[in-house]
Amino acid sequence: MDKDLESLITDELEAEGHTGKVGIFRVKTANDTVADAQKRPDPDPLYDELWFEEEVCCLFADSNLGKSIFAVQMAAYIAIRHRVLYIDCEMSDKQFQLRYSDPITGERYPFPDTFFRAEIDPMAMVPKDYETVILNHIEQTALAYDCDVVMVDNIGYLCNNMDKGADAGQFMQNLKLLKFKHGWSLLIVAHTPKRSLSSPITQNDLGGSKRLFNFFDSVIAIGPSTQGKSIRYVKQIKVRHGAFKYDSDNVLVYEVKKNDNFVHFEPIGTGRERDHLKDRADDEEDMRVVNVREQMAKGKSSREIAAFLGIGKTKVAEIMKQIKAEQASASAQNQDAPDTPDSPDTTGTNEVLPFEQD
Predict the structure, then answer these.
(1) Is the pLDDT of residue 355 over 70?
(2) Which residues fall within 8 angstroms of residue 265, CB to CB, at 6 or more apart?
(3) Beta-carbon contacts of residue 343 (< 8 Å; ≥ 6 apart)
(4) Do the Cβ atoms of 301 and 283 come closer than 8 Å?
(5) 256: buried, middle or exposed (CB in 10 Å: 19+, 13-18, 0-12)?
(6) Which of 182, 243, 320, 337 is most buried, by the most CB atoms less than 10 A from its CB?
(7) Closest among 267, 235, 245 to 254, alpha carbons compared
(8) What DSSP string describes 310-336?
(9) How far is CA 146 from CA 25, 53, 137, 149, 348, in A?
(10) How many Å apart are CA 69 and CA 49, to the nearest integer?
């Protein structure tokens, strides 16, 4: 290093009490780091200690488990104390309205006026530098409405190459820059690929590049339950602030309900994750059915499917017979059903949660 430059850096560090800036680095002693940080308030939990202020959080789950429902529920609660911008890339305004209004009376759910929902105008999209443009517009929108909490549903609309480590890493760096630049709290909704329902949820179940997980401050996941079609559990996968409160031995348990004009996760209590998992043998049988159905859709014969999946031809024939019977039954029901518009289920005990658009 040049002697004059080294002297200047040394003088600067000494003048500021071992605090200085060299290139891209801000340098302090460990003692000064703790002392300076101690002057600022500790971050408050935004939602049940699952997500704290000034964190980039990820919420992920498989399709049709209620990610969007849970995210909107979080946003409505947080908007009581903060100004929240919810970027909705999943539902149209009409779908949102149907979900959050009474199907009989039309009464709307009263969200806080500090909860702002935005959706992408497809006519305004530009293919060039898409990811940069959309992040810039998220920043402009949040600043325009003075929001300090930003939620995006979902990451697939922000990053086209989540599976590529370099692209995913660059995207997350740009996202975290918004946090550091403005002191915002950000939550990103994401998907998980097909996974074994007999195994606990881990960081490996987050879709996209493995590098994505490293950049998040906190990660939470929603899992299905064997205790009921509308039962869900929520588990902390990564925690930076504090300790794991809702780990495998203490997951949050909910029932998905729609009471009049509000679809939500209603708390039941806590429990062990293993009590909500499938028996391994049952899970393997379900996966066989899924795999056989996929091969049938490709026009494969029972012999070809058996050879491809490595299971007996007799077993394949049994599964094919079961699938064909289910398809015939579904077809008959559709023919008998009255020709009326679809409407959200209001029983609160839905089997397939028809109001979920994930």
Answers:
(1) no
(2) 66, 69, 70, 73, 232, 234, 254, 255, 256
(3) 98, 103
(4) no
(5) buried
(6) 320
(7) 267
(8) TS-HHHHHHHHHHHHHHHHHHHHHHHH
(9) 30, 16, 14, 9, 36
(10) 19
pLDDT > 80? residue 247? yes
Residue 109 DSSP one-character state = P
pLDDT score, position 115:
98
**DSSP secondary-structure letter at 237?**
E
* Eight-state DSSP code of residue 197: T
Average pLDDT over residues 64-83: 97
CA distances from 26 to 21, 68, 88, 211, 240 (A): 4, 39, 37, 25, 22
Structure tokens at 171: 């995207």
Q: Cis bond leading into 154, ω under 30°?
A: yes
Using DSSP's 3-state secondary structure scheme, residue 272 falls into coil
